[in-house]
Amino acid sequence: MSEHVQASEVEATVIAIIKDSLSPKVEITPATKFKEDLKADELEVYEVIYRIENEMGTTIPESEANDVETVADLIKPIQSRPAR
Protein backbone atom coordinates (compact mmCIF):
# COMPACT_ATOMS: atom_id res chain seq x y z
CA MET A 1 0.00 0.00 0.00
CA SER A 2 2.69 2.53 0.94
CA GLU A 3 4.54 1.77 -2.31
CA HIS A 4 1.41 2.71 -4.28
CA VAL A 5 1.02 5.93 -2.27
CA GLN A 6 4.67 6.76 -2.88
CA ALA A 7 4.23 6.08 -6.60
CA SER A 8 1.28 8.44 -6.84
CA GLU A 9 3.17 11.08 -4.83
CA VAL A 10 6.12 10.83 -7.24
CA GLU A 11 3.76 11.18 -10.20
CA ALA A 12 1.99 14.18 -8.65
CA THR A 13 5.28 15.90 -7.78
CA VAL A 14 6.77 15.34 -11.24
CA ILE A 15 3.61 16.67 -12.91
CA ALA A 16 3.58 19.72 -10.60
CA ILE A 17 7.21 20.53 -11.47
CA ILE A 18 6.49 20.17 -15.19
CA LYS A 19 3.45 22.47 -14.91
CA ASP A 20 5.48 25.05 -13.00
CA SER A 21 8.42 24.84 -15.43
CA LEU A 22 6.62 24.76 -18.77
CA SER A 23 3.19 26.31 -18.07
CA PRO A 24 1.54 23.93 -20.55
CA LYS A 25 -1.83 24.56 -22.13
CA VAL A 26 -2.71 20.85 -21.97
CA GLU A 27 -3.49 18.43 -19.16
CA ILE A 28 -0.42 16.45 -18.12
CA THR A 29 -0.61 12.68 -17.63
CA PRO A 30 2.12 10.01 -17.63
CA ALA A 31 1.43 9.51 -21.36
CA THR A 32 2.00 13.19 -22.19
CA LYS A 33 4.85 13.64 -24.68
CA PHE A 34 7.27 16.50 -24.07
CA LYS A 35 7.94 17.46 -27.69
CA GLU A 36 4.58 16.73 -29.31
CA ASP A 37 2.15 17.63 -26.50
CA LEU A 38 4.07 20.18 -24.42
CA LYS A 39 6.06 21.71 -27.30
CA ALA A 40 9.19 21.48 -25.13
CA ASP A 41 12.61 21.51 -26.74
CA GLU A 42 15.55 19.42 -25.51
CA LEU A 43 16.89 22.19 -23.26
CA GLU A 44 13.52 22.63 -21.56
CA VAL A 45 13.30 18.89 -20.92
CA TYR A 46 16.75 18.92 -19.32
CA GLU A 47 15.77 21.92 -17.18
CA VAL A 48 12.73 19.97 -15.95
CA ILE A 49 14.94 16.95 -15.20
CA TYR A 50 17.37 19.17 -13.27
CA ARG A 51 14.54 20.66 -11.17
CA ILE A 52 13.11 17.20 -10.47
CA GLU A 53 16.52 15.92 -9.36
CA ASN A 54 17.02 18.89 -7.02
CA GLU A 55 13.53 19.04 -5.58
CA MET A 56 13.10 15.29 -5.13
CA GLY A 57 16.65 14.46 -4.04
CA THR A 58 17.23 11.93 -6.77
CA THR A 59 19.43 11.46 -9.81
CA ILE A 60 18.32 10.41 -13.26
CA PRO A 61 21.26 8.88 -15.16
CA GLU A 62 22.23 10.69 -18.34
CA SER A 63 21.56 7.53 -20.36
CA GLU A 64 17.93 7.58 -19.17
CA ALA A 65 17.59 11.37 -19.40
CA ASN A 66 18.57 11.22 -23.06
CA ASP A 67 15.67 8.85 -23.76
CA VAL A 68 12.92 10.89 -22.06
CA GLU A 69 9.97 11.30 -24.40
CA THR A 70 6.98 11.11 -22.04
CA VAL A 71 6.22 12.10 -18.47
CA ALA A 72 6.22 8.38 -17.57
CA ASP A 73 9.84 8.21 -18.77
CA LEU A 74 10.69 10.58 -15.91
CA ILE A 75 8.48 8.94 -13.30
CA LYS A 76 9.76 5.37 -13.77
CA PRO A 77 13.45 5.94 -12.91
CA ILE A 78 12.54 8.02 -9.85
CA GLN A 79 10.23 5.31 -8.51
CA SER A 80 12.89 2.65 -9.04
CA ARG A 81 15.57 4.48 -7.00
CA PRO A 82 15.78 5.42 -3.37
CA ALA A 83 16.19 9.11 -2.58
CA ARG A 84 19.80 10.13 -2.09
Brief account:
By secondary structure, this protein is mainly alpha-helical. Helix content is 58%, strand content 0%.
Oligomeric grouping of the chains? single chain
Instruction: Please estimate the helix content.
Output: 55-70%
The run of helices and strands is HHHH
Dominant shape: globular
* Biggest pleated sheet: none
Radius of gyration: 12 Å
Amino-to-carboxy terminus distance: 22 Å
Number of strands: 0
Strand content: under 5%
Q: Which structural class do the helices and strands define?
A: mainly alpha
Helical stretch tally: 4
Model regions low in confidence, pLDDT < 50 over at least 5 residues: none
Overall pLDDT metric: 88
Characterization of the model:
The protein is an all-alpha fold and 84 residues long. 58% of the residues lie in helices and 0% in strands. It is globular. 15% of the residues are buried.
Descriptors:
single chain; 84 residues; mainly alpha; 58% helix
Element layout with pairings:
Layout: H1 2-22, H2 42-56, H3 62-65, H4 71-79
Helix pairs in contact: 1-2, 1-4
